[in-house]
Amino acid sequence: MVDVRRVKLPGVGVLHTFVTDDGGKVGVIAHRSGHSDLITFADDEDGPDGTKVSLRLSEDEAHTLAELLGGTQITESLTALDQIPGLSIDWFTVDYEDYIAGQQLGNPGDRGIVGLTVVAVVRGESANPAPAADFKVFPGDTLVVAGSPEKVAKAFNFYRTGEKHLKTPVDAPPGA
């Protein structure tokens, strides 16, 4: 676990810093105005030859960098989960013509898909984890689901067409 130090900068925001395993020093200044500065810096111990780098990021750029840095770990975790026999994790992006667009999410079990879980609904830049049955789904939303490959395919078919039964059996998870 990395030890992060937090220092309030009056009138500016908050400085978060940590030391890397190889002795490098990294900091992020989260300004009250919304932008952030990603910095590496030298202490007095490093002397005049210490390298200093500063990069100003807009709020969107800071979020993107955080997603890129954290995304690898999330992707690796999901890939490991997806290797569990009988478990499929997949994403369904809702289009305007899909049956589920404009509808409440509902309970998959009430729709004949027992054993499927809607893990989250991603809308824009925010996630809605474990959404309730009355959560309304809109075009552009991405549904993150987990279940057996057959149940995921059945759910995707329902989300797209409103039909509760697949016309053809499924041998592989959607997107495989």
TrEMBL record:
<dbReference type="GO" id="GO:0008324">
    <property type="term" value="F:monoatomic cation transmembrane transporter activity"/>
</dbReference>
<dbReference type="InterPro" id="IPR026278">
    <property type="entry name" value="KhtT"/>
</dbReference>
<dbReference type="GO" id="GO:0006813">
    <property type="term" value="P:potassium ion transport"/>
</dbReference>
<feature type="domain" description="RCK C-terminal">
    <location>
        <begin position="76"/>
        <end position="161"/>
    </location>
</feature>
<dbReference type="Pfam" id="PF25991">
    <property type="entry name" value="KhtT_N"/>
</dbReference>
<dbReference type="Pfam" id="PF02080">
    <property type="entry name" value="TrkA_C"/>
</dbReference>
<dbReference type="InterPro" id="IPR058776">
    <property type="entry name" value="KhtT-like_N"/>
</dbReference>
<dbReference type="InterPro" id="IPR036721">
    <property type="entry name" value="RCK_C_sf"/>
</dbReference>
<dbReference type="InterPro" id="IPR006037">
    <property type="entry name" value="RCK_C"/>
</dbReference>
<protein>
    <submittedName>
        <fullName>TrkA domain protein</fullName>
    </submittedName>
</protein>
